[in-house]
Structures are given as structure tokens and as C-alpha cells.
Amino acid sequence: MILSDKDIKKYIKEGKIRIKPVPNFKEQLGPCSLDLHLGNIFKTFKPSQYPYLDLKRSIKFEDLMEEVKIKDDAPFILQPKEFILAITKEEFTLADDLMARLDGRSSLGRLGLVVHSTAARFDPGWQGKATMELSNLGIMPVILYVGMRVCALTFETLSSPCETSYLKKKGQKYGKQTFPKASQITQEFKK
Hints:
Strands 1, 2, 3, 5, 6, 7, 8, 9 and 11 form a nine-stranded antiparallel beta sheet that branches. This protein has a two-stranded antiparallel ribbon with strand order 4-10. The protein has a single domain, classed as Deoxyuridine 5'-Triphosphate Nucleotidohydrolase, Chain A (Distorted Sandwich), CATH 2.70.40. The longest helix is centred in the N-terminal third of the chain and has 10 residues, at 5-14. It contains three helices and eleven strands, in the order αβαβββββαβββββ. The termini are far apart. It has helices at 5-14, 25-28, 106-109; strands at residues 17-20, 34-45, 65-69, 75-78, 83-94, 98-104, 113-114, 121-122, 127-136, 142-145, 149-157. The chain is mostly beta strands.
């Protein structure tokens, strides 16, 4: 079941959802979602000697990316056809009987901005800042600002608490992140 605005506030008050900094409900709370803000750390692909990305090749995708950190309220220009990773300003933690989904805001989608390409689910027990996969599908650059509302989380209850939460899962790759992490998929081919 998806939580309503009333239940989102209740779950935050009870500590089943923890969010830092504390949300401004008047600005961020929708009927069944909570808006999150764009953080100030981005990862962009830098020019590479590799003509393609080979998922089985023993390469660290972090080495193919450059971290860009900008000041609060500063602009970040996302060029047409560009793909970057970005982080939310907020860090959140979910209880073991709760999951969340991240969606882009419709107002940004109507400009050609894809806020999250895939993997929008946050498993029970998740803790950290959300990495977003931003793309500009439009023909004009889009200027994004640190601190702007960029995405929304919806929360769903599980039928019962999970047996193994995300952070306790062996091999979890993205928990407790405070910056956008590049793909860790090559770890799956080392098995």
C-alpha cells in the first residue's frame, strides 16, 4: 500500500522513515509523495581511451568519471544528450517493512529532463542519499540549481518486515552513499 501524506508524516514522526535534513512539509509533501532536493555533487563521464563500456572487463567505472562539486544555489548546466549522476541533498533511512520509489518531477520531464533512468526502487533497510541518473533528452541545455526540488519519493508498506534488509544483504553495493557512485556492475562478473 502506498503511504498518504498523513501516513508519511506519521512514519517520519515514528522514525520508520528518517530524513536529514528534516523536510519542510509545506514545500515538499504531496498527497502521496515527498519531494527531495538536488545535491551539490555530480559525476560526469570524462573522455576515455575505451571505445565502449565492456561490463565484463576488469575496469573501475569510477575511473571513467569525474566528480564535480558546486556551491549551494550554484548552477549546473546539463547539455543535450548528456548523461550524469547526481545526488539528493537529503539522506534517508527506511524501516525493514517499508520500501520507496523515486520519480522525476513532471515539470522537469516536460522539458526533456529524465531524472531517473532506471533502478528507482529503494529496498527496506536502505540508508543513504539517492543517486539519480539524469539525462537531457531535449535539444537545449537545461540549467539545474543545487537545492531545487528535483524528484519525489513514494513509500510502500511490505506485507511483513523483510528477513534481510538492504544494508545486511551480502554484496550490497550502494548503501550509505553520500556521493553519486558509478556503476559497480563489474563486481557481478567476478563471481
